[in-house]
Amino acid sequence: MRIIAEDATGAEPAPFRVARPWSPFPNAIRCAAVIGALLTALAVAPAAQAAFPGANGLLAAGGAFGCDGSMIATMRPDGSDFALLTPSVCEDEEAMSYESPDWSGDGRRLLANDRVGAPVLIDAATREVTRIPLPAEPFFGAEKSSLSRDGLRVAYTRQVVTPRRGSRSEVWISDVDGTNSRRLRAGTMPRISPDGRTIAYVTRGTSRGRTCAPGAGCSGAGTWLMSARTGKRIRRLGPAAGSLDWAPDGRRLVYSGARCCIDSNTDLHTVRVDGRGRRKLTATRRRAESGAVWSPDGRQIAYVARTHPDEEDVQFTVYRMRASGGPSKRVYRSDRARIEEGTSLEISWQPLPR
């Protein structure tokens, strides 16, 4: 088992070995001094929201790697200075699970999902977790939640189950204190725009009255924009995406195709908010690329590639590249994990004041 990270020059250092139980971030103990330095820097950072375009901070990565739970870690954009932000569920059976990180606009907090998909806030300096007091029903969805740039609102997914239609995803929005929680419309994977006025989201479509699986191409499936205030549809951007993220200036989105099955491959694209100017960034046959996020300065994109070394295992690698496309540089590589363990990896890029 090993984890590999490249340094800023692109050279690959010697992999360091870890012992079971496996953790997606096994070098956390070695980085104790780094953790202290990072937390100190975050604690003294200015409280004001980072200007956009902002400076590029840390990458946060959240993964569920077969330890019956998930954890979040941070790293520099070159893959160095790994540090666990939440306790390792592989080493502590009572540790709480958190995944799907989303940095706040000031770079001080992260929005994340707990084990049941409920959104929580994590202070990057103190690691204190604040639960957003939302009703437990309808049940929360597993999709990544979205924090507005001003840190005042959160968009998230709920699952509504009916005998006639089965399970249906809905996009909800709430203030971060849990008040003013309301349904916007059917959909999933909400992403709040930088100005807070628009939400990009995905609909899976229906077949015979039931919600379709991702990538099935059913009637009504697509990637859309809606009003964050009313939930009214603005326009359809294209087919249903597998992941979404806004450019810092709010003019474009980066997305991946929806994966129809475990071994399907997907590429990355960008599109303008008017639905035009579609550009393909990657074209690979041996891996599924998704979870792309824009850098705060708008010049780069980081993304996750999923590969299958064999029929039973899956492996994730984080890359970064220019926002216009081109060669990718490897940042982080996970160890192998069993496909049936529900493995995943999602990232977010921290904005810092200039």
Automatic annotation (TrEMBL):
**Superkingdom of the source species:** Bacteria
Q: Supply the alphabetized keyword list.
A: Signal
- So what family is this one in? Belongs to the TolB family.
The positions making up the signal sequence are 1-50
Q: Name one Pfam family in it.
A: PD40
Its name, as the record gives it, is TolB protein, periplasmic protein involved in the tonb-independent uptake of group A colicins
